[in-house]
Write a structure and sequence with these properties.
Blueprint (H helix, E strand, L loop, with lengths): L1 E2 L12 H10 L5 H22 L5 E2 L7 H8 L8 H5 L5 H10 L13 E3 L6 E3 L2 E2 L11 H11 L5 E5 L1 H6 L2 E2 L10 H17 L4 E5 L9 H17 L4 E5 L9 H5 L5 E5 L6 H8 L7 E7 L9 H14 L5 E5 L21 H4 L5 H16 L4 H19 L6 H8 L12 H12 L5 E2 L9 H11 L5 H22 L3 E2 L11 H4 L3 E4 L6 E4 L2 E3 L3 E7 L6 H9 L4 E7 L1 H6 L9 H21 L4 E5 L14 H16 L7 E6 L8 H7 L3 E4 L9 H7 L4 E4 L12 H14 L6 E2 L10 H20 L2
Parallel strand pairs: 1-12, 2-6, 5-7, 6-8, 8-9, 9-10, 10-11, 11-12, 13-24, 14-19, 19-20, 20-21, 21-22, 22-23
Antiparallel strand pairs: 3-4, 15-18, 16-17
This protein binds the ligand CN1c2c(nc(N)[nH]c2=O)NC[C@@H]1CNc1ccc(C(=O)N[C@@H](CCC(=O)N[C@@H](CCC(=O)N[C@@H](CCC(=O)O)C(=O)O)C(=O)O)C(=O)O)cc1, 2-amino-4-mercapto-butyric acid and zinc ion.
């Protein structure tokens, strides 16, 4: 039996990568210094895994931005707009990579960034490959080869991880019509062959191909491409040990295809799909050479592994597969886990009682090794002690008094259909809201957050360190909020926001105030590029001891005659972006959060807030990967939103906001959320996303985002009126709002001000045309 790991977090346990990348972008460090940080992180990660006793350690799981973008660079899939950077400017590879990820606006260039989207059902975002009809591929970046050599220099015979060619194509987008991206496979494969040849030449033996598309519903053609691809790879490189990994779901109807592939090891995510071993045995397709990689340790959550349960799964696998063909692994890459629980030394943030139930990446690596040893060395006393300690920790969690709250359970049980419905339907509410709010057509607003400047973050850091008092911190935030209100008034914004300056993050902020949540000091996980999140931990029944946002919204509203939008994160998004308890269904936890948010909505209304936004950007991401599971999820997710939103009077206008999501296949459910206004990210698709709303004849009001907030680039009024005209062509003007794609927290004030002035002017021009 052996152990391996699918990938280790690359941000560094102190977010060294984030800090180095941002310093490089700001011109504060050189490219060589940035490269050095990368090397240090990789070395630390490799050594940690080696010391822990992992048999096969991954390389090429590191990335300066994103592993899908790295693959685009590896195979030379560089969209044409960046060619000038290579040809005229001959920029180094790292600058090309960052230009593709973040755009390039200097030295006379104005190159937009590539699209970014959710990585399956995670809060990680990847850069979407772009393909042209005449797409040409050739080996460009040698990163995987260099990292293998570097690992070797560090004494490690590493296992290169490659995003498989089929998933790479399927995760991308055709930028022209007239072809399907999968048809590019024959042009792409030679580049993979070249990479494999070079790896083979330097004695790489094990290669991990990640094909997470196998977690999705594939059609026959897609399955055939998988089969043909791996047959060709094996034929070309018969002596390489091919590991095929998919995760986040069962193989489902793709199982018989994968069992017949000429690969040496097949990875199973037994956390998401514990029945997979039975399915494999029942298929009768298990060949007597295939190794099974048992993904037993949860790479997506922070709870300690249940050793007894995992050992049962190992035993079950071992009934038909000999131990020397069984591998033990995490369920997926540990990219989605925080780095090291040992760094959580603040007992107030994370109580020892709860901490003892948890494991981060470093601890998960130890769990993988311990599981294997428990399976093969059953008479080792020290190991048996580990098993007993594990059983005791799990039992303590099950029986802990801090998990259960009778009142919360009773309240959930007493929810009625009425609680999930507004008093009247939208047509009636609309009239009452129009009379009460008196807003113009093409009303302008923003999505909530204004720039979280270094200054604002420093105030919070100093407050948390005790350097400034609570009073002082609050005064500073109040001043910042007042400045934001005055500025919005001055440019003629219609519906104002308070700016969310008091929030570290739109989920963590709520987690810190809700009972049933714990939070960490250093539990960072990469969300995209250098941006990280610190997901709170839901360990028990959720309730709201005090109002969470009323103080800030009421203060902002007291400063102005204009309407100020109350700003909340919705129950599904709080659930989705937290580490969730695994001892009850997610739907139950979500309903508990919905009740807490409902109370906040009602309190906001009682304090005079008439427009309340409940953000649900993660509702689409929470969708199960397989369509057969969609309806069940959508039923409870939509209901949770409705419970949160339905405690207010008809006159109170409920907004929701979603970003970076495809809406076509769930538009009916979005309509069923029955928000009075929805704002959506739309500009990067040039309003294409609106088509789903138009085709459905979406009845409520919509604010299609008119500019991309990921770039410092300031859009012109004309660009935005052009987009609004496109919107007006498919959605009646009286339903339209004008807003950016998403919150502005990652932007600077300079570009934010310029862009919003243009946006307000664009709305004014649209009004003149009615
Ligand atoms: C809207 N998005 C969000 C997602 N998920 C969330 N949980 N939140 C989101 O807003 N998913 C989808 C999208 C895109 N994703 C992101 C994710 C993360 C960010 C982002 O801006 N992250 C910040 C960290 C935010 C934060 O928690 N800040 C804290 C502490 C910050 C800090 O580093 N403090 C320093 C000390 C202070 C200093 O010197 O600056 C320290 O601890 O060392 C805070 O504000 O208090 C990031 O920087 O990565 C955006 C979109
Ligand atoms: N209200 C949040 C939503 C982000 S999705 C913000 O503006 O940052
Ligand atoms: Zn958003």
């Amino acid at each position: 039996m052996r152990t391996h790991n699918l990938g280790y977090p690359r941000i560094g346990s102190q977010r060294e990568l984030k800090k180095a990348c941002e310093a490089y972008w700001a011109g504060k460090i050189t490219a060589s210094q940035l490269m050095l940080t990368g090397q240090k992180i990789r070395k630390q990660n490799w050594q940690l895994q080696q010391t822990a006793g992992i048999d096969l350690i991954p390389c090429n799981d590191f990335s300066f931005y994103d592993q899908v973008l790295d693959t685009s660079l590896m195979v030379g899939a560089i969209p044409e707009r960046y060619h000038a950077l290579l040809q005229e400017k001959q920029v180094p590879e790292i600058d090309l990579l960052f230009a593709m990820a973040r755009g390039y606006q200097k030295e006379g260039y104005d190159l937009t960034a590539m699209e970014m989207t959710k990585w399956f059902d995670t809060n990680y975002h990847y850069i979407v490959p772009e393909f042209a009809a005449n797409q040409h591929f050739s080996l460009l970046s040698h990163k995987v080869i260099n990292e293998f050599i570097e690992a070797k220099q560090n004494g490690i015979a590493a296992k290169p991880v490659l995003l498989g060619p089929v998933s790479f194509l399927l995760l991308g987008k055709e930028k022209e019509t007239g072809f399907h991206r999968l048809d590019l496979i024959d042009r792409l494969l030679p580049v993979y062959f070249e990479v494999l040849k070079r790896l083979d030449d330097i004695n790489a033996h094990y290669i991990q191909f990640d094909e997470p598309c196998l977690a999705l519903n594939l059609n026959d053609k897609e399955r055939k491409v998988i089969t043909d691809t791996y047959q060709k790879i094996k034929k070309q490189f018969p002596h390489l040990h091919l590991i095929l990994a998919s995760y986040f779901e069962c193989y489902g109807e793709n199982l018989s295809t994968v069992l017949q592939l000429p690969v040496n090891t097949l990875h199973l995510d037994l956390v998401r799909c514990p029945s997979q071993i039975d399915d494999i045995f029942a298929s009768g397709l298990l060949n007597d050479k295939l190794n099974l990689s048992l993904g037993l340790v949860d790479g997506r959550n922070i709870w300690k592994n249940d050793f007894a349960q995992s050992l049962e799964l190992i035993s079950k696998a071992n009934t038909k597969v000999p131990a020397d063909r069984l591998w033990v692994a995490p369920s997926c890459s540990l990219l989605h886990s925080p780095c090291d629980l040992d760094l959580e030394t603040n007992d107030d943030a994370l109580k020892p009682e709860i901490k003892q139930w948890m494991a981060f990446a470093k601890q998960k690596i130890d769990e993988v090794v311990t599981l294997k040893r428990l399976a093969v060395e059953s008479d080792n006393d020290a190991l048996q002690q580990k098993l007993q300690d594990n059983t005791a920790a799990l039992k303590a969690r099950k029986t802990s008094l801090v998990i259960h709250n009778k009142k919360v359970k009773q309240r959930v049980a007493a929810i009625t259909e009425e609680d999930a419905n507004r008093e009247n339907e939208f047509a009636t509410r609309k009239l009452k809201q129009r009379a009460a709010l008196n807003l113009p057509m093409f009303a302008t607003t923003t999505i909530g957050s204004f720039p979280q400047t270094t200054e604002v973050r420093n105030w919070r850091a100093n407050f948390k360190k005790g350097i400034i008092s609570n009073q002082h911190y609050n005064d500073l935030l109040k001043q910042e909020t007042e400045k934001a209100i005055r500025w919005q008034e001055s440019i003629g914004m219609d519906v104002l926001v308070h700016g969310e300056f008091e929030r570290n993050d739109m989920v963590e902020y709520f987690g810190e105030q809700l009972d049933g949540f714990a939070f960490t000091k250093n539990g960072w996980v990469q969300s995209y590029g250098s941006r990280c999140v610190k997901p709170p931990v839901i360990y028990g029944d959720v309730s709201r001891p005090f109002a969470m946002t009323v103080k800030w919204s009421a203060y902002a509203q007291s400063l102005t005659e204009k309407w100020v939008k109350g700003m909340l994160t919705g129950p599904v998004t709080i659930l989705q972006w937290s580490f969730v308890r695994n001892d009850q269904p997610r739907s139950e936890t979500c309903t508990q959060i919905a009740l807490a948010i409902r109370d906040e909505v009602v309190d906001l209304e009682n304090s005079g807030i008439r427009i309340i936004q409940i953000d649900e950007p993660a509702i689409r991401e929470g969708l199960p990967l397989r369509k057969e599971n969609w309806q069940e999820y959508l039923h409870w997710a939509v209901r949770a939103f409705r419970i949160a939103a339905s405690g207010v009077q008809d006159e109170t206008q409920i907004h929701t906001h979603m970003c970076y999501s495809e809406f076509n296949d769930i538009i009916e459910n979005i309509a069923a959320m029955d928000a009075d206004v929805i704002t959506i990210e739309c500009s990067r698709s040039q309003m294409e996303l609106l088509d789903a709303f138009a085709d459905f004849k979406y009845p409520n009001e919509i604010g299609p985002g008119v500019y991309d907030i990921h770039s410092p680039r300031v859009p012109s009024k004309k660009e935005m009126t052009d987009l609004l005209k496109k919107a007006k062509a498919v959605i009646p003007a009286e339903q339209l709002w004008v807003n950016p794609d998403c919150g502005l927290k990652t932007r600077h004030w300079e570009e934010t001000q310029k862009a919003l002035i243009e946006m307000v002017a664009a709305a004014q021009e649209m009004r003149l045309q009615i």
